[in-house]
Each structure stands twice: as C-alpha cells, then as structure tokens.
Amino acid sequence: MHTIHILGLGAGDLLQLPLGVYRTLKEADPLYLRTAEHPVVKELETEGLRYESFDAIYEKHDDFAPVYQEIAETLIALAENGPVYYAVPGHPLVAEQTVQFLIEAEQAGRCTLSIAGGQSFLDAIFGALRIDPIEGFRLVDGTGLDSNRLNMTDHLLIAQVYDQFSASEVKLSLMEKYPDDYPVTIVTAAGAASERLRTVPLHALDRSAEIDNLTTVYVPPVTEQTQRLKEWQTFRDIIAKLRSPEGCPWDREQTHESLRPYLLEEAHELLQAIEEEDDEAIAEELGDVLLQVFLHAQIGQDSGYFQLEDILEAISDKMIRRHPHVFGDVEVASAGEVVDNWQAIKQQEKPASESLLDGQDRSSSSLLTSYNYQKKAAKVGFTWKDADGAWAKFEEELQEFKDEVANGSKDQQLDEFGDLLFTLVNLARFYGLSPEQAMVQANRKFRTRFLHVERRAKEGGHTFSDYTLDQLDSFWNEAKAGHGEDENHETR
C-alpha cells in the first residue's frame, strides 16, 4: 500500500502557487487531476505538464457523490502499484469531497495520505469581497443546500454552483428564506487575473452568463430584522424585547400561571382550523401556539430556571429515546408495536406510582381528566365489555339525577349531575370520541346559531323580549338548517 500524495492547485493562477507544490507537480509521475478545468493546469501545460484527469467520470453519473466516490476508489486501487500524485483545485482540505473520502479510507487502513496545501479559494474570496471572516461566515455546498440550516446574519459562501441548473436549485432554496430581490454576488475565478464580481437580485441568479466551475455565490448578512422574520432567532429576539424593561408592560407582567388560559384558547383555535381544513388558518394558529411556548421559555429564562435550549434538549432526548426503531437497532413491524414500545419506555422513565391514575389529572379540563381516568381503568379491565353496559349505566345515572332534582338538595343534585356527565364521558370513550373536542364543537355551533337569532331579531326592529319563544325558535331552526352559517363565519 503506497502513499497518495495530494496537492492543492490553489484558487488563482500559477503565480499564486507555492514553490514546493509547483516543483512537485513538475516532477510527479503519475499525476492525476480531479479536473483539468483550472487556470494553473492551462499554464503548466505550456511547460510540458503530463497528467491524466478524471473529467470523464463526471459524464457517467447524475450526482456528484458517486463521482467523488469513484475517483477516490480509483486512486486507492492505483496506489497498490506505487506512489500516486493527485491534484485538486484550491486547498485539499477545503470543500474537496474526494479528499474527505480518501481520509475516511486512510482511517480504515486502506491507504496512506500526504497532503500539501495550495491557496484556498476562501482567501481569494475574502479579498475579492472585502469581508472579514471573523464577523461570522459559513461555507456550504450548493449541490445540497438546506435553507433551514442557514443563519441569515452570517456571510454565506456557496460553492459548487457550476451552471445555470445548479444556480437555479440554489436560488429556489435561498428564496425559501431570503427576499426575492435580495442582492447576491456571483464571484468567478477569485484570485485569478480573470476574476469577476457581479451583484444581481436573487431571483436573477440563474440567469447570469457568468457561471462556471470557478463560481462561488456570496450572500451578505441580512441586517434588517424585518427581512429575517423566517429565522428562529429573530422570533426569540422579539419575545425577549417584549419582556425587557424597554418592552411591553403587559408582556412583562405575565407569568406561567397568567398565560394558562391563553394557551388553552390558542390550542382550541388551532383544532378548529384543523377541523375546517384551512391551511392558512392552521399556519396562523400554529404561530399563536408557538408564541405561548416562546413566552413561557422567556419567562423561565428571565427567572433563571430554564431557557429554550433546555426545552429543546429535553424533547429531542425524549424523541430519540422513545424511537429506538429509528435512532437505534430495535425493529418493529407495525404502528401498534411502536405504541407498545413507547409505553414501555415511558414506564421505565417514570418513577413507580402508587396508582394508575397518578399523573392523569388535567387542571385545565375536568372532561379530559375524566376521560384519562376511565381510559387508564379500562386498560386493566375495569370497564364494561361493550357500550351496552355504558348505556345502561347512563340510564341509571339519568334517573338518579331526575330523582334528586325532584326531591334532593343542591349538593345531592350536583353530585348526581357529575355522575351523569361521567357516564357521558365513558360513552364517548367507547365510541372513540373526544369529549373535550365535542364540547368545543357544541359551543361553537351554539354561538354561530345564536348570532343568527340575534341578527334576525334586530332585522325586525324589536328586542328579544318582543318575540315569543316559538318565534325565536324558528330563527334557531333557520340557522340549524344552514341559513346564516356563512355570514357568521368571520365571527368565529
């Protein structure tokens, strides 16, 4: 197993090539190039440079990964017969995937490497753009750009933008976060005598004629907060500002306890949007729910108890831990097995409780607490075998409530009415219904229909007391038949 000597051709012309690398290139035999499309190669050809390039491999594959993998494997095979010299553009350790594959092979004991640097294209880029990297920059591969991983306050350099198609892909990814007219700079042949810079609006990136294999796209930091509204950190900064001494008096006064009703309200509005299959409303209501999460996180940070990172760590750890079939080596055959594993892992995480009902209370909803209690009891067999038993119990509790209404005290009536509601929750469980959601829908339906009754009463120029119950009930039946539903939609 002989050594693969890796050389960097630099980012510019022959004058910028280190003397040691120049001499090695002149004497290298055999010499392989990832690509011959480089200014240094053109100049060395006039001095009789002999080489073999891997440009033909690019024509064999649709993606870059198999190209780079094949080049690396070819070099490893060639090194079995003697030392091999391999030259790449720029610096071998900057944005050079073939070298990364070779390093992995070296770590696996399949080859040995010797790396000699040339000037990185980053040096030339920083000089051309007149930017200081200490301000924060990120170098990314344009062939696999993920806008969700970009920080809009960084200097962003995008390599591997080599033609109009790749420029189009980069443009579409960037437009998921950046404004369509945001200025971006196309840098071609940075550091060489033919260096060119051209600034265009983002939407015109793929229509530039100055794009080739020596192109890097530069996206400057976004300084205006109003242009960074798709950044998580921007939203976090907004909430922190609202809670600051210079912020909003109302937001500063809020506590975990005072925000509880708003979280419930926003959650129900989200459920309503989901039920109505209104995508725009779902996005808006998810934002309102997210606002509550960020407010609670900021309150925790202001109090010194926890912050957003602690929340993220806790939920990320839980998702990884409870999905061993995704993040581990556990195998499952169905969604049912996933649920069983989830519950088993959850039991291991929780300290042993004295009762199955421990942890099932929901202070925000007595209906949900009742549902949770009955579901837990049913899991150990404490329930009727079918809905018939639940119906019989409902009839029994209904009669007992009627008896107490006729002869009992208020406390006895309240007790029996609670039992009646409890049996209704049990019926909902048997039929796979959410009693909480059912009550939400019933309240919304009543509001919509009553608004129609109010409007009809006003149309007659009278007050409610001027109408008989039968007349008001006729208005109600109109709403029930569907009249007035659309015009009342905006009031929901």
What name is given to the CATH topology of the largest domain? Cobalt-precorrin-4 Transmethylase, domain 1
Number of helices: 19
Low-confidence stretches: 486-492
CATH architecture of the largest domain: 3-Layer(aba) Sandwich
Q: Can you identify the CATH superfamily of the largest domain?
A: Tetrapyrrole methylase, N-terminal domain
Shape: elongated
Gyration radius (Cα, Å) is 34 Å
Q: SSE string, helix = H, strand = E?
A: EHEHEHHEHEHEEHEEEHHHHHHHHHHHH
Biggest sheet: strands, sense, closure? 5 strands, parallel
Mean pLDDT: 88
Structural class: alpha/beta
What is the class of the largest domain in the CATH system? Answer: Alpha Beta
Content of β-strand: 5-15%
Distance between the termini: 75 Å
Number of domains: 5
Q: Got a strand count?
A: 10
Numbering strands along the chain, what is their spatial order in the largest sheet? 3-2-4-1-5
Helix content: 40-55%
Domain NTP pyrophosphohydrolase MazG-like: 254-327, 395-453
Enzyme class: hydrolase
InterPro entries: 4pyrrol_Mease, 4pyrrol_Methylase_sf, 4pyrrole_Mease_sub1, MazG-like_dom, NTP-PPase_MazG-like_C, NTP-PPase_MazG-like_N, NTP_PyrPHydrolase_MazG, Tetrapyrrole_Mease/MazG_pred
Protein name: Nucleoside triphosphate pyrophosphohydrolase
